[in-house]
Amino acid sequence: MQKEQKIIAATQIPSHSEKRWYGYQEKDIQAIWDKGKIPVVITEQHLLQGLSAYYGRRSILSFGLLPPGRSRRAMLSQLLHRLRSRGRDTERHIQDRMKNAERDLDFFEERSELFDHILVNEDLDVVLETLKGHVLGTEQP
Questions:
Q1: Distance set, CA 56 to CA 2, 28, 36, 49, 141 (Å)
Q2: Residue 137 region by backbone torsions, left for phi larger than 0, else alpha for psi between -120 and 50, else beta
Q3: Residue-by-residue pLDDT tens, the chain, 141 positions
Q4: Distance between CA 73 and CA 19 in Å, rounded?
Q5: Among the four residues 5, 27, 54, 109, which has the most C-beta atoms within 10 Å?
Q6: C-alpha distances in angstroms, 47 versus 23, 35, 101?
Q7: The dihedral of CA 11, 12, 14, 20: what is its sign?
Q8: Is 49 within 8 Å of 40 (Cβ atoms)?
Q9: In Å, what is the CA distance from 76 to each residue of 80, 84, 93?
Q10: Chain-centre distance of CA 69, in angstroms?
Q11: What is the widest separation between alpha-carbon atoms in the chain?
Q12: Total-model pTM
């Protein structure tokens, strides 16, 4: 990260072999706003908190995405089933993802004020249409 560029939200996300830093630069977000567009970022909890703290909560339209299920246990079970049925992750990676999912569910509960909408990922097409409707202002509350 260069010193002359203002980083407005940053976090360290460890991988198995190395640590990586992720973040957003103020100038990049501002350049999108200057074009009259809405910046759309896919982020994790620390970056969401940083963006909210920097710009103010009302400046951000945020969505949480949950696996299907009526209870925490059902959501985690559904996620585990999805990860295993893909057949592309090691068991260790799946267990890491499940631990992260548990922390994410805690975060959704503990910091619900950071989210405008919580979506359930039962049908990807429905989720995408809902996101599109909210971003474009055509979705009914």
A1: 25, 17, 19, 10, 22
A2: left
A3: 444 566 565 555 444 445 566 778 888 888 988 998 878 777 788 888 888 888 888 888 889 999 999 999 999 999 999 999 999 999 999 999 999 999 999 999 999 999 999 999 999 999 999 999 988 877 665
A4: 31
A5: 54
A6: 7, 23, 17
A7: positive
A8: no
A9: 6, 12, 15
A10: 19
A11: 47
A12: 0.71
> Using an 8 Å Cβ cutoff, are 50 and 8 in contact?
yes
Contacts of 71 (CB under 8 A, 6+ apart): none
Q: Report phi then psi at 116, rounded to 5.
A: -80, -35
| Helices 72-86, 91-110: inter-axial angle, 10-degree rounding | 150
